[in-house]
Amino acid sequence: MAASRRPTLADVAREVGVSAKTVSRVLNEDGPVSARTREHVLAAVAELGFQPNLMARNIRVGGPDTTIGLVIPDLANPFFGAVARGIEDTVRDRGLTLLMGSSADDAERERALTAQFLARRVSILIVVPSVGADHSDLKSHRTAGLPVVFLDRPGVGMSTDSVVSSNRAGAQEGVAHLIAHGHRRIGFVGDLPVKLYTRRERLAGYRAALREADIPYDRSLVVSAHDQQGAEAVTAQLLERPDPPTALFAGNNIMALGIVAELARSKRKHVAVVAFDDVSLAEALEPALTVVAQAPEEIGRSAATTALARLDGDRSRARTITVPTRLVVRGSGEQRVREGGR
Amino acid sequence: MAASRRPTLADVAREVGVSAKTVSRVLNEDGPVSARTREHVLAAVAELGFQPNLMARNIRVGGPDTTIGLVIPDLANPFFGAVARGIEDTVRDRGLTLLMGSSADDAERERALTAQFLARRVSILIVVPSVGADHSDLKSHRTAGLPVVFLDRPGVGMSTDSVVSSNRAGAQEGVAHLIAHGHRRIGFVGDLPVKLYTRRERLAGYRAALREADIPYDRSLVVSAHDQQGAEAVTAQLLERPDPPTALFAGNNIMALGIVAELARSKRKHVAVVAFDDVSLAEALEPALTVVAQAPEEIGRSAATTALARLDGDRSRARTITVPTRLVVRGSGEQRVREGGR
DNA sequence: TTGAAAGCGCTAACAT
DNA sequence: ATGTTAGCGCTTTCAA
């Protein structure tokens, strides 16, 4: 039951009666090896259950490791899950494996993760930057040839490739949709912290839509929450005011869940809703939820493709890729302005 | 712009005018170092932007790498996202980082991923086994001290710790709920392939509930699909038959999405539904969706805890941990048996 | 076609 | 308090 030492190249070599280098040659299909020794080596490898130590190999070869470091806020958020899948699908052909960690949107945890990934000599670093994180320390690595891509939000302290959604335009389109259906008092339920890039951009889109329609901006209609429960609470508060909004705009998928849950709970079907980011079952709700859909997998693929191009020597200027959003009209944005019930 | 070589321990040592070992001592807070040299070393480290090579360190130290390998079917499935979060939360304190890959439920991809993880000398291996995968090759690693835990489904070809939901009992409880509300023709919409452990167990629970109520098993009421779209299609077909079921049981979260979407599309509100696994917005649907809720984060935590215990020397017999499900009654299971509309 | 020696970046074990 | 030597498991280089 004792933890017996894992077999090494040398063990296999000894077993067969050849040099370590010969075994190495067989395994890497490097130089020429006679068919006979090849057989023997392979047999010994199978028998001993030898598995080459990738770290040792990497040390010697010197290049970056065949891993890609990915820092996202939350593994359990479906948006980032889809992003991760897009990335994995794109890099798999290149033999890269995903090293992942969630930052919980905490700058310190993000820093610890990136440091760890750098120490592991990842081939690529893809980061969803937390509020307050500074990325100046990544600069030198980028100059040294490490592709760094910021995702969902631009980074701070260095200029590098970023992939973001068309947050402002998308939000503006979503809010305009509400306005087109007669709404003039539109609540904005955003996530926290308020300095979050996506929140600011989407709020800017909201304000632009109001401006476009000559609707004065009412600060009191903008509320915030950390999670779904929080969103439910602020939604309830907003609607219980003497002058409640007739429509709500959700700043992200989690806020959307909160709004929808609260409206269902309180049976306020007459409140119009448009959400930024799609959620599952949106079309099965009553009314079906109109959303400004993002393309999370495409965002992931795009980030990965950009990084791979850098890895292949692309030295062009840092780009910001904007992945377009799409207004998916399903009904919830067209609720009547006046009158309750259906 | 050329990729300048990353600085090494030796570079730092040369810069300060000390030996490599001294630098190592400072960084690992090993043996005694004078405050002065400490300062100097730290300064040089910062200036050169030195980041110790974790792989080199690991090679020398010989122990397993501080990574945990995780193979799941799909990164974008919220169930597995939550599982992953549970795992990460549990192992973070121990300084372990997640190495993840999705198998797409393909035995060959699963094998390639585990091989890669083993080659990286992960500290722990957690796998959601694909249908048709054989895990005999992991046996020797487990004996050699590598904690291997199967998650969501038991493995094949070796006995080791597994963490699963109470699939059979949960499904039985869910179907019994439908029967209690007068349903006798209950459709089962399951995922594929049919040999999938969770599907078989849940189907067994479905049959047990029928048996308990003396309802004959009608094979034609059991249908299958690969994804949400497929589930929508088979749901539609099932309900368009001359003798349609009055209730449906969803075999997993994806099937649930398909059923709910199809019922909403075709406005068949009178069909009762209970789903295995919870989905977001379940409570906002009309009727709200009754589910047999799993505890994905708990499953992840449980798997991680078990693995860590093994890492700490626990040599007791392999366990199968069953994480209980919970019937969450929300309404959709109580639809009337006869009569359409509300 | 094969092997011996050196070395990747780091640390364990022993000096000093 | 610091340095030296050797070696982790592998590959590169050069020689046979």
UniProtKB/TrEMBL annotation, chains A, B:
Keyword DNA-binding: yes
Gene3D superfamilies, sorted: 3.40.50.2300, lambda repressor-like DNA-binding domains
Sorted UniProt keywords: DNA-binding, Transcription, Transcription regulation
Entry keyword DNA-binding: yes
Residue ranges constituting the HTH lacI-type domain according to the UniProt record: 7-61
GO MF terms, alphabetically ordered: DNA-binding transcription factor activity; transcription cis-regulatory region binding
Range of residues in the leader sequence: none
InterPro entries cross-referenced by the UniProt entry: HTH_LacI, LacI/GalR-like_sensor, Lambda_DNA-bd_dom_sf, Peripla_BP_I
Protein name, UniProt field: HTH-type transcriptional repressor CytR
Organism: Streptomyces chartreusis NRRL 3882
Gene that this sequence comes from: cytR_11
